[in-house]
Design brief:
The chain is mostly helical and 206 residues long. It has 6 helices and no strands.
Length: 206
């Protein structure tokens, strides 16, 4: 009975979301608000049991790690945003969070993206295989012309401008491929929901 009820609820909510294809309506708004509300509640519960309790509250109260009083106070100060008179206190923990995150992100992106991408582009132009060599040459030309396009200290004229124009084509192809991949992934989700309606809900497909 509970499985059947879950299928009906999922099917009706799916139809509520699909109703936006006609126009904005109360059914779509209901499904949208329900999704956002459940996601927010689930996120808070997840943070409470997986972050706050094991990383702060239990070590502080049960293990006596008094140093954790500092992040606990900073966390409380974040809630001062709800009080206009004391909202300025939230700037201290926000500045700390943004500063730490920026430092970690720079190191992470530098070692995880920048260095790896540079290393991936250091390829031999001739490998003894025509297809592999053509692929490496094409990749190298795309990287160089793409960087030329974003070099704004020199006017894009002559040979420099031609390189920038070629870089534009490479960028457009890259953006188009990314957009196509996004569309295909969304189409996969759509097919999944339609299959759910046809098979699990209506029983037309087996």
């Amino acid at each position: 009975m509970w499985d059947l009820l879950g299928i009906w609820v999922a099917a009706l909510l799916t139809l509520c979301v699909f109703s936006f294809l006609y126009k904005d309506n109360p059914f779509y708004k209901f499904a949208e608000h329900l999704f956002v509300g459940i996601s927010a509640g689930y996120g808070v519960t997840l943070e409470w049991y997986n972050v706050f309790l094991p990383n702060l509250w239990r070590p502080l109260t049960q293990q006596g790690k008094l140093i954790l009083i500092v992040p606990f106070i900073f966390g409380i100060l974040l809630f001062s945003r709800f009080f206009k008179q004391y909202s300025w206190l939230s700037r201290w923990p926000m500045a700390l969070i943004i500063g730490i995150y920026a430092g970690i992100a720079i190191i992470g992106y530098g070692s995880g993206d920048l260095i790896l991408q540079i290393n991936a582009n250091l390829l031999p132009l001739w490998t003894g295989k025509w297809f592999e060599s053509a692929n490496n040459i094409l990749l190298t030309v795309g990287v160089i012309t793409g960087l030329i396009y974003f070099f704004f200290s020199k006017e894009h004229k002559g040979a420099f401008g031609a390189g920038a124009k070629i870089g534009t084509w490479f960028l457009m192809i890259s953006f188009g491929a990314s957009f196509g991949y996004t569309v295909m992934s969304r189409m996969s989700l759509l097919i999944g929901r339609i299959y759910f309606l046809m098979a699990a809900w209506l029983g037309i497909l087996h």
